Amino acid sequence: MGLLEKLQRLKSPSEITPEMLQTIVDYIAKKQWIKDRFPDTEEEVLIIVEHRPFRRPVHRRVVRAFYEDGLQRAEDSLRCWEDLPDGIIPMGWYESTDYGESCEISDQVIGWQHLPDPWEGDTNDI
User: Fold this and answer.
1) Is the CB of residue 41 less than 8 Å from the CB of residue 68?
2) How many other CB atoms are there within 10 angstroms of residue 64's CB atom?
3) Model-level pTM greater than 0.85?
4) What is the pLDDT of residues 14-54, one digit of tens each?
5) How are the residues of the chain apportioned to helix, strand and coil, as percentages rounded to the nearest 5?
6) Alpha carbon separation from 108 to 46, 120, 124 (Å, rounded)
7) Helix/strand/coil (H, E, C) string of 68-83?
8) What string of DSSP letters covers 46-105?
């Protein structure tokens, strides 16, 4: 039984265990937009970007991405990099794709957060 089911069956707040409370706190912290630090290099995260098209209103989008700190060699990367003159991956944010080439993000990144946990249920439950 998952945490949600356990919480739904509670009869009073006094039944919340310290472990349940810590799980809730950790979950809430994981869902906050982070602005004051970068994620680990090559960790896939969600980012929010501000797109500023010429003479049009600014709008924000959420994109799956990863950050490179400019210190990693392409040969040590989890990703495929080509045409790097010195073999070092340039510092910056890159869009994360599963079936194509990742590309550098030119919009302003204003925050990031961890990806949600992968689906663990039966596919018939979707």
Assistant:
1) yes
2) 13
3) no
4) 888 888 888 888 777 777 899 999 999 999 999 999 988 88
5) 20, 25, 50
6) 14, 33, 39
7) ECCCCEHHHCCCCCCC
8) EEEEEE--TTS--EEEEEEEEEE-S--BGGGSSS-----TTSBPPSEEEE--SSS---B-
